[in-house]
Design goal:
Largest sheet: 7 strands, mixed
Mean pLDDT: 96
Distance between the termini: 67 Å
Shape: globular
Order of helices and strands: HEHEHEHEHEEEHHHEEHEEH
Bound molecules: pyridoxal-5'-phosphate
Oligomer: single chain
Radius of gyration: 22 Å
Helix content: 25-40%
Strand order of the largest sheet: 1-7-6-5-4-2-3
Strand content: 5-15%
Length: about 350
């Protein structure tokens, strides 16, 4: 058994997955209790009346190529949200184990842990140091049955990258003790390499990627975990059969052909230009106190008057994210970089009147 599997729930290691109907597209299907006729408006290749491939291997292989890993190092799920859930389920025993998160950060880590009945240990990022990781704080708490450390880089909602040396220190401290999950939902906007290059060196490293942000496919619900093949294989056995709907499989494969990927690169460039334009312009609003630097496609904005910021956005028919309930962000809004026209509308709405 791979050493990293010793961290997983022992009761799951022998789990026999659901035995789905045999998949052979060459044969006609009278074995899955499907309907023989297509529904109205169905323009899928396979037919919406048919169950999709139990696990869409061609799409998973395409993502592995896109992310530069071997197919055995990747599991595809309904967004990275689903793989976060699978990770917590696979590694945390209810009532016994814990996850460690570093708020303010993405809320799903905590929710997934709470649903599983795992404890949540929080080690806040250090706002005074640009929301840097408190590495000593993280390492000091590892003894408390922590099975997964969630790091988000670039972090949502603060926008900063977690320093490489800090991630490496956490990885070293967690070897043989806990998984380190680096969520890279926004890495395409950060102009840096993925931590997935280090997978061979750290079997307890898991990298999360998603098509929802830079690839403009949030509606397709496709995300992935990259990691040691033994961990990936365990997660695969927990994934429900037919998790990815047929329209998502077909449309996503189409959206990831070479030409489209080239277009994505151009759009990322455009969003980065817009991000810097909005970042420079926002402080001219009397409502804005500080705009934090960002390596993602959003900006964290500290406000003099957050209620008014929100209200002016809504008056211009634009929603921004109120993050004031998050730890240390009592006066902050998170603003996604939109099209140039949307960004102009927001900036105009925030001008003095
Ligand atoms: C948006 C986001 C995700 C969610 O991605 P899906 O693949 O759409 O589920 C994951 N992590 C972070 C930090 C995010 O901001």
């Amino acid at each position: 058994m791979s050493d990293v599997l010793k961290l997983a729930r022992p009761d799951l290691l022998a789990l026999e997955p659901y035995s789905h109907a045999h998949w052979d597209p060459a044969l006609e299907r009278l074995h899955a209790n499907e309907n023989p006729w297509r529904p109205a408006g169905d323009d899928t290749e396979l037919g919406l009346n048919r169950y999709p491939e139990p696990y869409p291997q061609a799409l998973a292989d395409r993502l592995a190529a896109l992310y530069g890993v071997a197919p055995a190092q990747l599991i595809l799920g309904r967004g990275s949200d689903e793989v976060i859930d699978l990770l917590v389920r696979a590694f945390c025993r209810a009532g016994l184990d814990a996850v460690l998160t570093c708020p303010p950060t993405f809320g799903m880590y905590k929710v997934a842990a709470q649903i599983q009945g795992a404890r949540v240990i929080e080690m806040p990022l250090v706002a005074a140091q640009g929301f840097a990781l408190d590495v000593d704080g993280v390492i000091a708490r590892l003894g408390e049955a922590v099975k997964i450390v969630f790091l988000c880089s670039p972090n949502n909602p603060t926008g900063n990258l977690i320093d490489d040396a800090a991630v490496r220190r956490v990885l070293d401290a967690c070897a043989g003790r806990a998984l380190v999950v680096v969520d890279e939902a926004y890495v395409e906007f950060a102009g840096r390499d993925s931590w997935s290059r280090e997978l061979g060196r750290y079997p307890h490293l898991i990298v999360l990627r998603t098509l929802s942000k830079a690839y403009a496919l949030a509606g397709a619900r496709c995300g992935a975990a990259l990691g040691d093949p033994a961990v990936i294989e365990l997660l695969r056995r927990l994934l429900p059969p037919y998790a990815i709907p047929e329209p998502s499989i077909e449309l996503t494969l189409r959206a990831l052909d070479e030409r489209e990927v080239e277009r994505t690169r151009g759009r990322i460039e455009q969003l980065l230009v817009e991000r810097e334009r909005v970042r420079a312009a926002l402080p001219r609003s009397p409502l804005v106190r500080t705009v934090w630097p960002s390596a993602a496609n959003f900006l964290l904005v500290a406000c003099h008057d957050a209620d008014e910021f929100l209200a002016r956005g809504i008056a211009a028919k634009l929603l921004v994210r109120d993050v004031r309930r998050q730890r240390g962000l009592g006066d902050c809004m998170r603003v996604t970089i939109g099209s140039p026209a949307q960004n102009d509308r927001l900036l105009r709405a925030l001008e003095a009147t």
